[in-house]
Specification:
Elements lengths: L24 H5 L11 H67 L3 E11 L2 E10 L6 E12 L16 E3 L6 E3 L3 E4 H8 L4 E11 L8 E14 L3 E8 L5 E2 H11 L1
Antiparallel strand pairs: 1-2, 2-5, 2-6, 3-4, 3-7, 7-8, 8-9, 8-10
Length: about 260
């Protein structure tokens, strides 16, 4: 046990005093901030789930739009492809049809008037058209009609074609020819034509079929003006000139229809 020495006072230890904090009057005037509420965990999780669903739905909408765009593109591409395929098939069919038509046209019977034979016999002149088959196959059901007319003055190009006698039935093989449809003109009309008091016209038409199945009937028609020179009755000469629009065949009509279409 320690003992106090005489003559000395015991030393007392004093704890350091805490500093005194003074408050600024401006800070004292500020209102106290209320503490932040603690976030509700279930509500926050639900909000995150809603945001995830919204994002997923947006992605689905984007994917659906892409699928619609791709589908529309495929439909358009298929339509364009189908159009060009149909166009190609149509061109192939047309080419095949033209090839078949050209092959038939090169082989089928084709009738036309090559020239005219005439003979003065006293009081009349007989005029006979010479019909020619220039095709490589014979005709079928060939019917020939002819007629003539004496007119004062020039006729209009759309001359009225008519026939009085029944047609002559004929057969023409490949490269064959025949005189058919003879018309008889009185010598007095020949004399009047020589003196330019009359105009003499002869016309005719041949209707026939070819040997190919499925083809349409054909025809050839002509209309000529007869020009007379020389001296009647025994020293005359006849010249035949095409007149009007009744000169041609069914091929001419078909070509005109194709050009119009």
């Amino acid at each position: 046990m320690a003992q106090n020495r005489p003559g000395r006072q015991p030393v007392q230890t004093q704890a350091p005093s805490s500093p005194v904090r003074t408050m600024d009057p401006a800070e004292a005037a500020k209102p106290l901030e209320s503490p932040q509420p603690v976030a509700d965990a279930p509500a926050d999780a639900e909000r995150r789930a809603a945001e995830a669903r919204t994002s997923f739905n947006d992605q689905l909408v984007i994917y659906a739009a892409l699928l619609v765009a791709v589908g529309s593109f495929l439909v358009i591409a298929f339509g364009v492809q189908a159009f060009y395929v149909a166009l190609g098939l149509r061109l192939m069919q047309r080419t095949a049809g033209l090839s078949e038509r050209n092959a038939i046209a090169g082989q089928r019977a084709f009738i036309y008037v090559g020239d005219f034979a005439w003979h003065a016999d006293g009081t009349v002149v007989e005029i006979s058209p010479t019909w020619v088959n220039s095709g490589a196959t014979p005709t079928r059901r060939l019917q020939i009609n002819t007629n003539w007319k004496a007119a004062h003055g020039e006729l209009r190009p759309e001359i009225d074609i008519n026939y009085v006698k029944p047609p002559d039935g004929q057969f023409l093989g490949p490269g064959a020819k025949v005189q058919s449809g003879t018309v008889v003109v009185p010598m007095r009309d020949i004399q009047a034509a020589l003196e330019e008091r009359l105009q003499i016209f002869v016309w005719g038409r041949a209707v026939y079929e070819d040997m190919f199945e499925g083809t349409k009937p054909h025809f050839f028609e002509f209309c000529h003006r007869v020009e007379v020179t020389g001296e009647a009755p025994g020293k005359i000469k006849l010249h035949f000139r095409q007149f009007g629009r009744a000169n041609g065949s069914d091929e001419d009509v078909q070509s005109s229809e194709e050009a119009a279409s």
